[in-house]
Amino acid sequence: MTGPTITLSGVYTAYEGAANPSLRNINLTIDRGEFVVVGGPNGAGKTTLLETINGMLRITHGSARICGINLLEDGVGVRRRVGYVIQNFAFDPLSPFTAGEVVLMGRYGRLGYLNRPKEPDIRAARQAMQMLGIEDLADAPIGTLSGGQQQKVLIAQNLAKEPEIMLLDEPFSNLDLIAKHSVSTLLHDLAGAGITVIVVSHAFDDLPPRPIRILVMNGGEVTADHTCTPDEVEDIVRTASGSDARA
Ligand SMILES: Nc1ncnc2c1ncn2[C@@H]1O[C@H](COP(=O)(O)OP(=O)(O)OP(=O)(O)O)[C@@H](O)[C@H]1O
Ligand SMILES: [Mg+2]
């Protein structure tokens, strides 16, 4: 289970209609099972990097291979293998779905449109909810849950997908101290199981006890790339991004 799972070569990404690219000349190789933290100030390009990796944004120059797939040829195939927990997501308060149904939606990419979930799908969804400690929320309408509870549902949905790569954008922002620690432990276990974990975060106080690859972004570029211990991450980010590393 070694070898690159993400290779970006000379990648530029631009938003529709934007005068300048938001990612500039990204050259990055990430191996299976690496635990990557992406830091840097607001507007640096962290979310753009995640959405480039899973093919949601258009690459204007360069090439990308994700899970052995040419991203420019098969973005759907890439997204089937990549989990993505987006930043600041909130479900519609009137959404008709229960939390359990939302988690089960993580299986839809495997099912195809006309197939109903089968026993393994239901089991995967149930296990993902157990891992987040939210089994008791399964029947609650998703829109009635708190921000932190909704975030756990979204993480569970992506776990149920059984991805090869898990992208998480500020996953700790709505979580209480206990939940933060348990999600950190969960991500540690995922990386231990060979899943590549990439976390965008401004909080570095509860990183798992393992080598951390820290990427610091500034102005759409990766300006620092080190593998270090969890304790060293904050200083590296602060030094590489200037005084507003915690912005
Ligand atoms: N939908 C969009 N259309 C045009 N430009 C955008 C869009 N989203 C982001 N940008 C621009 O791309 C750049 C990078 O934004 P991005 O959201 O990746 O930053 P970030 O590092 O995730 O910041 P934050 O810490 O605030 O989440 C910024 O200059 C931003 O203005
Ligand atoms: Mg962002």
From TrEMBL:
Pfam families: ABC_tran (PF00005). Transmembrane segments: none annotated. Residues 6-244 form the ABC transporter domain. Keywords: ATP-binding, Nucleotide-binding, Transport. This is ABC-type Mn/Zn transport systems, ATPase component. The keyword DNA repair does not apply. The keyword Mitochondrion does not apply. GO terms for molecular function: ATP binding; ATP hydrolysis activity.
